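Q: What does the predicted 3D structure of AB hydrolase-1 domain-containing protein look like?
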Amino acid sequence: MSEVNESSSSWREGTGSVVGDTEIRYNSRYSAVGGGYGGGPAGVEVKGKDGENWKFHAVEFAKGFAEMSVEFGKGVRDVLKQSVIREDSILVRKVGPLCCKVCRRLSFLNEYLPEDRDPAHAWSVIFFVLFLASAVLIASNDNIYPTTSVKKVYIHPPSASRISLPDGRHLAYQQQGVPAELARFSMIAPHSFVSSRLAGIPGIKTSLLQEYGIRLVTYDLPGFGESDPHPSRNLESSAMDMLHLSYAVNVTDKFWVVGFSDGCMHAWAALRYIPDRIAGAVMVAPMVSPYEPRMTKEEKSKMWKKWTTKKKNMYILARKFPRLLPYFYRRSFLSGVHGQIETRLALSLGIRDKALLEHPLFEKFWQRDVEESVRQKNAKPFVEEAVLQVSNWGFSPADLKVQRKRPGKGIMHWIKSLFGQTEEILTGFLGQIHVWQGMEDMVVPPSTSDFLQRVLPDAMVHRLLYEGHFTYFYFCDECHRHIISTVFGKPQGPLTPEPEPEPEPEPEPSPIQNDDGETQDTILGDVATDEENVSSVVNPDKEDYID
């Protein structure tokens, strides 16, 4: 037995001299569980570190992934060469000549490359490095230029007056100018998109309204500001809300409706559905539906060409996919922070409009108006408003044209027409319509006023040179005075209150005559009572009898 042990030890020493010291020691006994070879040696001792093994596997995996990516890229390149980048492919036929032309014009740049470099390879590397450098500069832009502080939207305490409508909803409103009993003219103004009752005629002075005796009433549309939302809102219900508001605030006579931008669609609705209550309309940069069927292709093309791509896409979404609008609204004016108006509403503005928007007074007014508009933090009213702009209104501004009503059909109408007994009936809106349009307006392009002038020949269109979308309506005292004087003429001031009637004096008692026609004095002392008068009539000789 000792010989066997000595031979085994000599074998290990000989093997170690050939293989080298691997720092692994094996026991002479095998595990009884695995039969020696099944489960591995029970006496293995590993002195290497697990971290080194992990790093080794990670490096090998990265090398394999890189090799696979290179092979995949080569495969994609071969596929593109065989299918897309062929001489007979559509892409090469359309884009190839243009690329060749550009490359020929830029071939002079190859002179600046090393002679031993392929231009295609060199320029691809140059453009790749340029792309990475641009990405790094854009990413580090925040560190180079300090960011301005973001102002959060503040919800103010409720402050509006409200009325109750027949359907139980409440409508918030605001009044300016003279009181109701002194108003010579009354004006009601619905607001535009992302606005509120606080807008009205921005910056108009109370002294101007008092000079002309005007009472201006503005209100929040359903779901905006402090007004309750409407379950199924449309333009007819908007006109009915305006009608109920006029009665609730004691506007007994006809009133003027004032509209600005896309808020004019509510003014158009008032002219269509409650014309008997409207004295006239004042519209500044009036918006019509971009899908108005009565517009010509040229008028539509001029309108759409002025808008930004984002605004066009928002109109398409409102018409085709309105359920996607809340996502965009919550990332803009419903995000809880303030932003620039042209960014929030995707507006394309001219030079004068941009200068006005940068004024601190306009910025303060705009932020306060937006805070009131988004008070309820509900996207549904804004979606409804956007859908109303692009949907079928149920009427066209052309329907407001004054024209004779066609006579009815039938033999009775024919007989009445022979004898001249038919009455001439006019249809459309019979009041005045004033339109002010800035010729540099890029939000509501001048082609809109051209359309209105064509379909409403009786409307008075005032074209304003060098004016934009906001410059003639916001914070312009001279412009406000020009609008008011054009509509109402010379200032006459508010109405004078009627004096209260004085109480009628009590009639003096008439003297009583006797049977002979002589007047009988019945005054005793200072006052003659009724009893004494009666007694004097019954006993005319009573005085002589007393004497």
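A (community wiki): The structure tokens above were generated from the sequence. Confidence is low (pLDDT under 50) at residues 1-47, 514-547. The CA atoms of residues 86 and 423 lie 78 Å apart.
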